[in-house]
Amino acid sequence: MNFAYLKHKYHESFIVDPSDLGNPTLTKIYKRVSGRLKIMPFLYLVPISVMVIVGISLVFGLSVVKIATLLQNGI
Length: 75
Description:
By secondary structure, the chain is mainly α. The chain has helices at about 5-10, 25-40, 40-60, 65-75.
């Protein structure tokens, strides 16, 4: 292997094709969401996870504790 071949392979490894989901609307949404998640993921993930936890507790009530205990210890 010579240096030119290695240099070509090195540059080739950094070429990333653009993300295309086939549908222009989905591609636009994907690029917008992934761009924001790359910059500050916790700004979006923490509030979403808190809302999911509150929603689960509102739906299942106190049985969430029983479900969590079953999942941890088994039946």
